[in-house]
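Meet our chain:
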Amino acid sequence: MTRPSFSTRAVHAGERQPGGEYTPVASPIHPSVGYTYESMDDTDTVLGSQKAGFIYPRYTSPTVHAFEQAVASLENAPAAQAYASGMAAIHAALLAAGAQNGSSMVAALDIYGATYSLLKNLFAVLGVTSRFVDAADLPAVEQALQTSQANILLVETISNPLLKVADLPRLAEIAHRQRASLLVDNTFATPYLFNPLDHGADYVIHSATKYLSGHGDVMAGVVATSEENKKKLYETNKMIGANLGPFEAWLALRGLKTLPLRVRQQFSNAGQIAQWLAKHPKIAKVNYPGLDGHPGKQLAAQMFDGKGFGGVLSFEIRQADQAAAFRFMERLQLCQAATTLGDVYTLVLHPATASHRSLSAEERARIGIPDGLVRLSAGIEDIEDILADLQQALRQ
């Protein structure tokens, strides 16, 4: 049989784990904190990683393993390592890629605020130097890597919250030419739109809290990578203990099955919302890769092969300060103001006080995040209902 399609793999990958005399159709939840073997020799080899198996959930568990297999399949990856959150996944990937005292890394300027703070604050204390550059400026990226002798380049496929598209094939060439690993946060794009490992990335990171699980009821993270890098992630996590729990893994695996169905609707809704907002007299600017005039539209169309432009957009309310943006968000009735994205619900967020709150006003200004900017994550509701809600909130 030829390799199944993406949609079929989303439904079946990670399932049918052998259970002795039977094979369950859906992966069960294994909450046990211990696993025993008849032979202590088997216990010894599993503990020493000479033999596959389960021994303690800080290492892994059957339910977590099933989720990891499913994500690896969708990302065309040899392996994956799951974590308790997306930030834990980013942190672990940076450590595995060689972030250590005396090293340097280069990151996209407009990355997620918590990631920016992780590099600027925590890794700086640990002796890691970080430089932030516009990932669309390829010569500047290469120069930053070369002059700093960085061993890591960290970017987002679609940036949060300005929706810039990274030229990942070119960035992979640049990173490897400068002997750096390319780490890609693929949360906004999802594996449905793009598989960075196929185009040279070394680590692909997801906040599985978002699109992969998709229902706003589980926090998780995951890194898809090579078998060799998986071993680094696995051994590091045995010490750190940022492991994903079995109940959360089961929810994430269950949500993953409908990923293609959900994102097709979300991407379609986001495109229509962006078009509608771009024509609205109270909106000064809309950031969305699918809009004519967006500097990354042609690149996105090529990279994403006509499957869409993502489910997130951001927009500036004309002449709005923080208070005006807050009042708009409070007037929404269907769209919910929540500090997350990728759910079946349409969600709005104020980047200056939420996703990028940890940045100073000067840092936000440098990136291009004004007080009147609102981020919207399209849900799967009927498009007419979403637009009606936005209309009544803007009218008031």
Notes: The chain has a mean pLDDT of 95. The longest strand covers residues 312-317. Residues 259-395 form a domain with the Aspartate Aminotransferase, domain 1 fold (CATH 3.90.1150.10).
